[in-house]
Structures are given as structure tokens and as C-alpha cells.
Amino acid sequence: MNRVTVSRCWRQFGMQRNLLLPVLLGAILLPCRSAHGERGHHAVTLGAPRSVPYSPQADPAGSNGDENKLVVRPLVVDGHIAEWTTGPIHEVTDRSFVVRLAVRLNNALPGEKSGKNGDWIWQRGPWLLVDRVTGHAATLKLPDYDPVVSDVVWFRDDAAYCGLSASGKSLYAMVAQIATRKPLLHKKLQAYDAGHALSPVCNEAVWQRDPLSVTFQLAGGTAHTYALFGVATASAAPNSPAATNASHADTGYSSRANSVQGNPAAINSTRAQPAASGDSGAGTSEPTSTAPSSSPQH
């Protein structure tokens, strides 16, 4: 065999090697990708409740009165604590639920010497949307939500609560839907003066399924009932394509709410009126990721 023949054989071997290399890599990586897909499902649970020190002075916005203990539960993902929560959960779909975040804050001043465990306080935080499949938890940005006046009542994927305008001078009846930008309902209730407001400012909203309506009542005030028409479910998993697309869609549902004050029978007969624009624009409910909290100290 001369040098020319050897050279040709070597070149042919090199070409075959280049063709076989992607095939071999695919055969090696395919089982790995399949195994990774099986590991895509996560174990999401809420741990045992425990009481932690709490005071209205440390959490003036989220406190419900004269409280000295706050019951918190860890949100555990794959055996690791991802967040701390407080209060009951609301099942949104068969794979997602919402729960209120419990935040642990460092209360030490710059240069201040604290004890062995530091100076930490607990506060009630925003609402979380938790996906049981992916293990992802995202903060919900509810339009005009204010922890002082907003007591959220959930039905399906809709949140009903009294909202406070950005100026802090007006109270609104609010219905926000997960994964949509604009609120379904945004109606002004009355002016608000923080210095002379009752506590609580609003009673809990009351939902009615058929016909779909929600009732708001200010403390010591008149009840306001609103019928909701054409409300489609737009909930989706946090950070999913459906949630991203829905959050940028202008649903226009805010114009499909009727005021039916003191006359429930008129829910189906009243004409739809556009929602009041008020002095505050609607916020966004597009979820953003949250950072893990630390373990509680007693």
C-alpha cells in the first residue's frame, strides 16, 4: 500500500468520523434529556405551622389589630424552604394556588449591635402564585392593592378587594384577574382620608356565582353590588407563555361591570357601564420572581 492509498483511506475515515459524531452525541444526550424531563415535576408542600413574634408596631400596614404572634408556614420545594407564608391558601387550578407571603426583615439600625440571633421582625407581604409542577413562586402585583385597606377575597382566579389610588385619596371597588393587565372592575367608592378612616376600612367582599357578581361594603356604609359579564378565565402558570401573552392583552373587561346597588334583581337587566377611570391607573398583575426567605427565629 503506497502513501497515496493510505492518505485516501485516512481522509475517508475522517469524513465518516465527522458524520458519526453527531449521531453518537445524540444517542448519549437523548436519555439525559428524557431523564431531565422526568425531573421537571417538583414536590411542593406547605410545612407545619408555627408561631413567631409579631407586633402591630413592626407591621402597621399588615396588622389586623392587637396581635403578638403570627402563624407562618414554610413553602417547601423539593425538601428546601423557598418562602414563608401566612394565612390559608386558595386553590386556583389543579396545579396552582395563591397564598400570602410572610416577610422576615432585618430591623437593626446601621452600626447597631444586636443580639446573637439579630434583630428581625415579621410582616405580612404580597400574594404569591405557586405552581405545583414547576415549583415556581411568583409575586402577584394586584392593581391599586394596599395592605392597609385591601383584604383580598378569591373566587376562581379573580381577586376582589378595596383598592387605594396612587394619590391615597380615593377608594375603589377592585376585581383583578391573574395573568391580565387591567382589572375586571375598577369603580370609585368614595374619597379616603387616612387620618379619619375606620378600621377596617372595608368589609370583606362577597362573591355570588349565579349570576356572577361581587358586593363591596365600606365600614358603616352602603353595600355596592357589581355584576360581571363576559369574564373569561385567563389564569396560567407563572412565567408560562400563556401568562406572558395574557398579561399583555387588553381584555376590556373593566367595561363589563354594572353597578346594582341595593337591587340584586336588576343584575341581568341593567345596561353595562364603563368603569370609572378615577385618579389612578390600573397596575399590572404580571408575576415577578421572588427571593427565598430565611428561617424564622423565635
Question: Mind explaining what this structure looks like?
Answer:
The chain has 298 residues and is of the alpha+beta class. The chain folds into two domains: 37-141 and 286-298, no CATH class; 143-282, no CATH class. Helices cover 14% and strands 33% of the residues. It has two helices and 16 strands. It has helices at residues 3-38, 241-247; strands at 44-46, 50-53, 69-77, 80-91, 96-106, 120-131, 137-139, 153-155, 158-164, 170-177, 185-191, 206-208, 213-217, 223-228, 257-259, 288-289. Strands 1, 2, 3, 4, 5, 6, 7 and 16 form an eight-stranded antiparallel sheet that branches. Strand 4 and strand 5 (96-106) form a beta hairpin. The longest helix has 36 residues, at 3-38. The radius of gyration is 27 Å and the shape is globular. The termini are far apart. 30% of the residues are buried.
